[in-house]
Fold:
Amino acid sequence: MRRPRGASLQIEFSTNIRHIDRVKFFIHLALLLGATFFVGCHKDNPPTPDKPLTIEDILPKQAQTKLPTVKIYLGAETLDAELALTEKQEMTGMMFRSNIQDTDSMLFVLPSTQRANFWMMHCPESISAAYIDPEGVILEVHHLEKNDTNGVIAATDNVRFVLETSDGWFTRHNVGVGAVIRTDKGSLAQTFLPGGQ
Structure:
Protein backbone atom coordinates (compact mmCIF):
# COMPACT_ATOMS: atom_id res chain seq x y z
CA MET A 1 0.00 0.00 0.00
CA ARG A 2 1.38 3.35 -0.89
CA ARG A 3 1.83 5.59 2.11
CA PRO A 4 0.08 9.01 2.07
CA ARG A 5 2.47 11.93 2.18
CA GLY A 6 2.48 14.03 5.28
CA ALA A 7 0.75 11.43 7.40
CA SER A 8 2.11 11.07 10.91
CA LEU A 9 1.42 7.36 10.58
CA GLN A 10 2.03 6.66 6.97
CA ILE A 11 0.27 4.25 4.64
CA GLU A 12 1.92 2.76 1.63
CA PHE A 13 3.05 6.03 0.15
CA SER A 14 4.58 9.24 1.36
CA THR A 15 4.46 11.38 -1.74
CA ASN A 16 0.89 12.70 -1.48
CA ILE A 17 1.25 15.56 1.02
CA ARG A 18 -0.39 18.03 -1.32
CA HIS A 19 -3.37 15.77 -1.97
CA ILE A 20 -3.89 14.87 1.70
CA ASP A 21 -3.62 18.56 2.63
CA ARG A 22 -6.19 19.40 -0.08
CA VAL A 23 -8.52 16.70 1.21
CA LYS A 24 -8.15 18.01 4.76
CA PHE A 25 -8.72 21.59 3.55
CA PHE A 26 -11.91 20.70 1.66
CA ILE A 27 -13.22 18.56 4.52
CA HIS A 28 -12.55 21.37 7.00
CA LEU A 29 -14.10 23.91 4.62
CA ALA A 30 -17.22 21.75 4.22
CA LEU A 31 -17.47 21.31 7.98
CA LEU A 32 -17.01 25.04 8.55
CA LEU A 33 -19.66 25.96 5.98
CA GLY A 34 -22.03 23.34 7.36
CA ALA A 35 -21.45 24.57 10.91
CA THR A 36 -21.97 28.19 9.83
CA PHE A 37 -25.26 27.30 8.15
CA PHE A 38 -26.35 25.22 11.13
CA VAL A 39 -25.47 27.96 13.64
CA GLY A 40 -27.13 30.62 11.49
CA CYS A 41 -30.37 28.61 11.44
CA HIS A 42 -30.27 27.46 15.07
CA LYS A 43 -28.69 30.19 17.15
CA ASP A 44 -29.74 28.50 20.39
CA ASN A 45 -27.44 25.52 19.76
CA PRO A 46 -23.75 26.30 20.28
CA PRO A 47 -21.39 24.76 17.68
CA THR A 48 -19.39 21.70 18.62
CA PRO A 49 -15.61 21.95 18.30
CA ASP A 50 -14.05 20.39 15.21
CA LYS A 51 -12.28 17.11 15.80
CA PRO A 52 -9.05 17.11 13.77
CA LEU A 53 -8.80 14.43 11.10
CA THR A 54 -6.48 11.54 11.83
CA ILE A 55 -4.79 9.15 9.43
CA GLU A 56 -7.42 6.56 10.39
CA ASP A 57 -10.13 8.92 9.09
CA ILE A 58 -8.46 8.95 5.67
CA LEU A 59 -7.47 5.28 5.38
CA PRO A 60 -9.65 2.66 3.68
CA LYS A 61 -11.74 0.55 6.05
CA GLN A 62 -11.84 -2.69 4.05
CA ALA A 63 -10.11 -4.61 1.28
CA GLN A 64 -10.81 -3.47 -2.25
CA THR A 65 -12.37 -5.88 -4.70
CA LYS A 66 -10.06 -7.53 -7.21
CA LEU A 67 -8.82 -4.94 -9.69
CA PRO A 68 -8.46 -5.40 -13.47
CA THR A 69 -5.28 -7.29 -14.34
CA VAL A 70 -2.46 -7.15 -16.85
CA LYS A 71 -0.19 -10.03 -17.83
CA ILE A 72 3.41 -9.16 -16.99
CA TYR A 73 6.56 -11.04 -17.88
CA LEU A 74 9.60 -11.22 -15.61
CA GLY A 75 12.13 -13.33 -17.53
CA ALA A 76 10.64 -16.85 -17.62
CA GLU A 77 7.96 -15.93 -15.06
CA THR A 78 4.47 -14.63 -15.82
CA LEU A 79 2.00 -12.96 -13.46
CA ASP A 80 -1.52 -11.63 -13.91
CA ALA A 81 -1.00 -8.49 -11.84
CA GLU A 82 -3.88 -6.40 -10.55
CA LEU A 83 -3.50 -2.76 -11.62
CA ALA A 84 -3.55 -0.03 -8.98
CA LEU A 85 -3.99 3.05 -11.18
CA THR A 86 -5.92 5.57 -9.08
CA GLU A 87 -4.88 7.23 -5.86
CA LYS A 88 -7.54 5.34 -3.90
CA GLN A 89 -6.46 2.00 -5.41
CA GLU A 90 -2.84 2.80 -4.55
CA MET A 91 -3.70 3.84 -1.01
CA THR A 92 -5.69 0.65 -0.45
CA GLY A 93 -3.34 -1.75 -2.22
CA MET A 94 -3.46 -5.14 -0.50
CA MET A 95 -4.77 -3.77 2.81
CA PHE A 96 -6.97 -6.20 4.74
CA ARG A 97 -6.23 -9.07 2.34
CA SER A 98 -5.37 -12.44 3.79
CA ASN A 99 -4.44 -15.77 2.24
CA ILE A 100 -2.21 -14.15 -0.42
CA GLN A 101 -1.21 -16.84 -2.92
CA ASP A 102 1.98 -17.23 -4.98
CA THR A 103 0.06 -16.10 -8.06
CA ASP A 104 -1.32 -12.93 -6.41
CA SER A 105 0.32 -9.64 -7.35
CA MET A 106 -0.46 -5.96 -7.73
CA LEU A 107 1.31 -3.45 -10.00
CA PHE A 108 1.21 0.18 -8.87
CA VAL A 109 1.54 2.73 -11.67
CA LEU A 110 2.70 5.81 -9.74
CA PRO A 111 1.62 9.26 -10.97
CA SER A 112 5.24 10.40 -11.35
CA THR A 113 8.79 9.17 -10.92
CA GLN A 114 9.56 9.42 -7.23
CA ARG A 115 11.22 8.00 -4.11
CA ALA A 116 8.54 5.41 -3.36
CA ASN A 117 7.52 4.77 0.24
CA PHE A 118 5.25 1.82 0.98
CA TRP A 119 3.99 0.59 4.34
CA MET A 120 1.87 -2.24 5.70
CA MET A 121 -0.78 -0.70 7.93
CA HIS A 122 -3.85 -2.97 8.05
CA CYS A 123 -2.03 -5.68 6.09
CA PRO A 124 -2.37 -9.00 7.95
CA GLU A 125 0.22 -10.79 5.76
CA SER A 126 3.80 -9.88 4.89
CA ILE A 127 4.55 -9.34 1.20
CA SER A 128 7.47 -8.58 -1.10
CA ALA A 129 7.71 -5.41 -3.17
CA ALA A 130 9.91 -4.50 -6.12
CA TYR A 131 10.64 -0.83 -6.77
CA ILE A 132 10.88 -0.40 -10.55
CA ASP A 133 12.19 2.39 -12.80
CA PRO A 134 10.20 3.94 -15.70
CA GLU A 135 11.55 1.38 -18.21
CA GLY A 136 10.50 -1.59 -16.07
CA VAL A 137 13.89 -2.47 -14.56
CA ILE A 138 13.72 -3.71 -10.96
CA LEU A 139 15.88 -1.40 -8.83
CA GLU A 140 15.20 -2.84 -5.36
CA VAL A 141 13.30 -5.75 -3.80
CA HIS A 142 12.03 -5.39 -0.23
CA HIS A 143 10.33 -7.52 2.40
CA LEU A 144 7.34 -5.61 3.83
CA GLU A 145 6.43 -6.87 7.29
CA LYS A 146 2.74 -7.36 8.07
CA ASN A 147 1.05 -4.48 9.91
CA ASP A 148 4.27 -2.42 9.97
CA THR A 149 3.42 1.28 9.99
CA ASN A 150 6.99 2.30 9.14
CA GLY A 151 7.44 3.05 5.48
CA VAL A 152 10.04 1.31 3.33
CA ILE A 153 11.60 4.18 1.42
CA ALA A 154 13.33 3.59 -1.90
CA ALA A 155 17.06 4.25 -2.13
CA THR A 156 16.48 6.23 -5.34
CA ASP A 157 13.97 8.78 -6.58
CA ASN A 158 13.70 6.99 -9.95
CA VAL A 159 10.77 4.68 -9.05
CA ARG A 160 7.72 4.77 -11.34
CA PHE A 161 6.21 1.33 -10.67
CA VAL A 162 5.95 -0.97 -7.68
CA LEU A 163 5.09 -4.68 -7.89
CA GLU A 164 3.72 -6.35 -4.76
CA THR A 165 3.72 -10.15 -4.54
CA SER A 166 3.40 -12.86 -1.94
CA ASP A 167 6.21 -12.78 0.61
CA GLY A 168 9.42 -14.23 -0.84
CA TRP A 169 8.10 -14.52 -4.40
CA PHE A 170 11.14 -12.86 -6.00
CA THR A 171 13.57 -15.19 -4.21
CA ARG A 172 11.52 -18.32 -4.95
CA HIS A 173 11.34 -17.43 -8.66
CA ASN A 174 14.93 -16.15 -9.05
CA VAL A 175 13.79 -12.69 -10.10
CA GLY A 176 15.90 -9.87 -8.71
CA VAL A 177 17.48 -6.47 -9.21
CA GLY A 178 18.16 -5.80 -12.89
CA ALA A 179 15.29 -7.96 -14.17
CA VAL A 180 13.09 -6.22 -16.73
CA ILE A 181 9.29 -6.41 -16.51
CA ARG A 182 7.33 -6.31 -19.77
CA THR A 183 3.75 -6.69 -20.98
CA ASP A 184 2.27 -7.82 -24.30
CA LYS A 185 2.50 -4.18 -25.39
CA GLY A 186 6.23 -3.86 -24.63
CA SER A 187 8.01 -2.10 -21.79
CA LEU A 188 6.11 -0.75 -18.79
CA ALA A 189 6.74 2.76 -20.17
CA GLN A 190 5.24 1.80 -23.55
CA THR A 191 2.27 0.19 -21.81
CA PHE A 192 1.40 2.78 -19.17
CA LEU A 193 3.12 6.12 -19.74
CA PRO A 194 2.00 8.83 -22.17
CA GLY A 195 4.17 8.68 -25.25
CA GLY A 196 5.94 5.62 -23.84
CA GLN A 197 8.16 7.84 -21.69
